[in-house]
Design brief:
The complex is a heterodimer of chains A (309) and B (444).
Chain A lengths: L1 H13 L20 H22 L2 E3 L4 E3 L3 H8 L1 H33 L5 H13 L2 H11 L6 H8 L14 H26 L3 H9 L4 H12 L1 H17 L2 H6 L11 H10 L3 H32 L1
Helix pairs in contact in A: 3-14, 4-8, 4-11, 4-13, 5-8, 8-11, 11-14, 13-14
Chain B lengths: L5 H27 L12 E8 L2 H17 L3 E8 L2 H13 L6 E4 L3 H4 L3 H4 L5 H4 L11 E2 L2 E2 L1 E4 L3 E8 H6 L8 H13 L3 E3 L11 H4 L2 H7 L3 H6 L9 H15 L12 H9 L3 E7 L3 H7 L7 E5 L10 E4 L2 E4 L6 H14 L2 H10 L19 H11 L3 E3 L1 H4 L7 H9 L5 H19 L5
Parallel strand pairs in B: 1-2, 1-3, 8-9, 11-13
Antiparallel strand pairs in B: 3-12, 4-5, 6-12, 7-9, 7-10, 7-11
Helix pairs in contact in B: 2-16, 12-20, 19-20
The chains are: A mainly alpha (309), B alpha/beta (444).
Amino acid sequence: MSTTISSTAARSRTRPARTPGGSSRHRGPYPGWFYLPAAVIYGVLFIIPTLLSFYFALTRWTIFDSEFIGLGNFAQFFSEPALTKGFVNTFVYAVLTSGAKVVLGLGLGMLLTSQIVGRGYLRAVVFFPVLVSSVGVGITFQVLMNPTKGAINAALGVIGIDGPGWLTNPDLALFSVAMVDVWKGVGLATLIYMAGIVSIPKEYYEAAKVDGAGSWTLFRNVIFPLSWPATSTVVTLSLIGGLRSFDLIWAMTRGGPGFTSDVIASVIYKQYQAGFYGLSTAGNVILFVAVTAIVLPLTRFLARKEVEL
Amino acid sequence: MTRTAPHPRTTRAAALVVALALAPLAACSAGSLGSSSDEGGEGGTTITWLTGSDETAQATATSIVEAFEAANPDITVELDGRPAGGEGDNLVKTRLQTGSMADVFDYNSGSLFQQIAPEKNLAPLGEDVIGAVDDTYLPQVSVGDTAYGVPYGTAFGGGVMYNRDVYAQLGLQVPKTWAEFASNAEAIKAAGIAPVVQTYGETWTSQLFVLGDFHNVAAANPEWAEQYTANQAKYATDPAALAGFQHLQEAHEKGWQNADFASAKVEDGMRALAAGEGAMYPILSANVTTLLSADPDAGDRIGFFALPGEDAATNGLTAWYPNAVYVPKSTTGAKLEAAEKLAAFIASPDGCEAQTQAAPPTGPYLVEGCELPADVPQVTKDVSAYFEADAQSPALEFLSPVKGPALEQITVEVGSGIRPAADGAALYDQDVEKQAQQLGLEGW
């Protein structure tokens, strides 16, 4: 699915685009009016609030009135002690989860497109966690990871390992949540990879086999490069998801213990919860800029690599 | 051509109709979420009461509603639940802002009450409603001379619940100074019992060492709260105020905490306390209800004392005033009348009686004519004794609107050994600055 989308995008960039309709005034069979309902909803619920937030980020507002304070909120937000930690944690979390999803997704994708027993069942099992709500997963794992009463440490205890406080150890909490995020998200990455791998034409495998390629060479020179569109989709999606991640972290640790597993989004949410609306709006603007600054060049880079292939 | 000509016109007209139909829909759907404007059947009035979603809150409200409906057969009260803590605050503020608040709701008194802009959002309550309310309570729910709420529940204390059996077995006395507390803790630890129960699975409980110590801060400097509000007193630089953070650090460093302190919840803490696995649990006395649901027989075994400070002579309790029941301005007409009737009922001896039936009182009711029953738990008796001896002073949140939102995270860090006490106090001073600025206080 993603392959077709990305490769059409790549092709339209290399070839001059041609409009199928002929004259430029009558593009499609439907009048422009048809855009109106969607445009109204999109404008009222998205464009206007987004633009307003850029203004409100410069004010100290309560529910009832606002006072313009210039860049004060941004200065305050950057002096927020939890924020430095939050920024570092966000990047660690995003890189870690998207890296693990690429590696595991590619591996599982290859495994589940090969001829193995119970393939349909295994595909369903791998994909299943994607369907469960993040908060549900978070609460479940919070119970499983309880240091004294949780199933994970009980299981480790049976084989003689004294399990750590997964979510209560300040050095471990973020990684535990990242692990659960990977467990939950790897199904989608696998699905994308499976689509990518399946769409590689048989001729490449046959040609490689004729040239005497082993399975490593086959992976190195055929499967990995030709499923690049899938890789770039997985990286982009999971990186954006990781940078914005909030629900799972909030459900599992609430940024704790203390501030040790705070990410930008949870810092913002806490400011909002405390009634610092201007401050949290400024935080959201910062998050927006940060995500754009990382993801935009990255997608450009990934797309360029696609064209080079 | 003649056949196709009318076609675009009709589609265009249809699209216009759809667009016109959708536009007001998009505009109103956000506002109508969560509104509860269904009139009750049989000619009576139905009002909704937003209260806590936890078991105790629902049981207490249900008990009041049953008694109230029996006295007012034409009024039906429905209950709605909200989460506790910051999330609940947020929900209350958002619903008030959007005019979608339930007809009656209960919420904190004191400085949190001031933050929901009472003059704009709440309906003032007349003498017929607040007549029986204790005068000491009214400032906590008033702006100027106008009162907006009636007390819901009893006053309570922030201090230490302790296992009296453990104390008796080891021959210990209730500590009046921190030094005595520390030596008791060492004796309890030597006996193989966790001296201090901590439950960071629910982060708010970590704040007690700091918030419950305020009586001692006020005893050392009676002007502290005003100076704090005026940005002149700080936790990090005032030794009496810093003591709370230091005691918390000491409890961690000396290994007084229960082994599962990082993940335990209040129920776990109460169970450990009732079973004698832990001896002293700094908590609000209001949580005696959780204690009794964890162990119904623990009422006589568990007592309560105030967090001790430096000086035995000024030993006393940090007191919390009860929450209040408010009526938002969005309630009008027959519903307003019914809501005021409910508020008046809550602030009457019958209302106290209904509350006592649902859950044992945790301190004195601040309504004239309300008496505590004789069989209240020991914790309540100990708390009431502080009130009777007048050895109590209000918690900081009733004296100053300055309260930082991150205190519970900071105290978890101090109590877990992630951050030293002085550092935590300094961080908290920084945290409250935002609150003061948001409220537009002078001097910040």
